[in-house]
Design goal:
The structure is a single chain. The protein contains two helices and ten strands; from the N terminus they run E-E-E-E-E-E-E-E-E-E-H-H. With about 180 residues, the chain is an alpha+beta fold. It has three domains: about 1-55, no CATH class; about 60-100, no CATH class; about 105-160. The chain has a three-stranded antiparallel beta sheet with strand order 2-1-3, with no helix packed on it. A three-stranded antiparallel beta sheet has the order 7-6-8, with no helix packed on it. The chain has a two-stranded antiparallel sheet with strand order 4-5. The longest helix has about 35 residues, at about 105-135. It is rod-shaped, with a radius of gyration of 34 Å. The N and C termini lie far apart (about 90 Å). About 5% of the residues are buried.
């Protein structure tokens, strides 16, 4: 005979192990003498003196549908409400059944990047113009530095005209 033990400290009472039993004794309070059925994706649990199969998602990764945070499942039973096994992607939101593209979040990100790029390019242009202007003001220019100054000033004007709030903003090409 074999005793099939379950964890009686867990409310679902999942199977834990089996051991040889004495023929002339009764099974302990935390064991049955009936062999549990095993099936992939399920864990046998004792319920009302019999084994039942309970969904087992332990060690699977699920995602919070509000925060998109990943979490490893450490419990028996169905996946809790508010979580999904579907992995989120960049700029997505939960539709009730699946992740869908969140156009507003994507556009907001593009606009923020456009503004950051515009600011960085303007800073670079201002630096170049300031240095070239100093060279010319002090009559220390070489070769084509006056033409460079004019090209950088034109570039800065074109940059200022870029609408960074347009998701399809096109930036001018930097002078050589």
């Amino acid at each position: 005979m074999i005793n099939y033990y379950f964890d009686n400290t867990n409310e679902l009472r999942p199977f834990t192990h089996k051991l040889e039993a004495n023929d002339d004794t009764l099974p302990p309070d935390n064991a049955l003498r009936i062999a549990p059925e095993f099936k992939d994706g399920y864990c046998p649990c004792m319920q009302n003196g019999a084994w039942v199969l309970v969904e087992d998602n332990r060690d699977k990764t699920v995602y919070n549908i509000e925060t998109k945070e990943a979490k490893k499942i450490d419990y028996l039973g169905k996946i809790k409400s508010g979580f999904t096994e579907l992995k989120p992607f960049e700029f997505c939101k939960w539709s009730g059944k699946k992740w869908v593209l969140d156009e507003d979040a994507k556009n907001e990100h593009i606009i923020k990047n456009n503004q950051n790029l515009k600011n960085a390019l303007l800073n670079e242009a201002n630096e170049k113009i300031a240095i070239l202007q100093d060279i010319i003001d002090l009559d220390m220019q070489e070769a084509d530095e006056e033409a460079q100054l004019k090209a950088w000033k034109k570039y800065r004007i074109l940059l200022m005209r870029v609408d960074a709030s347009d998701v399809n903003a096109v930036f001018p090409v930097k002078p050589e």
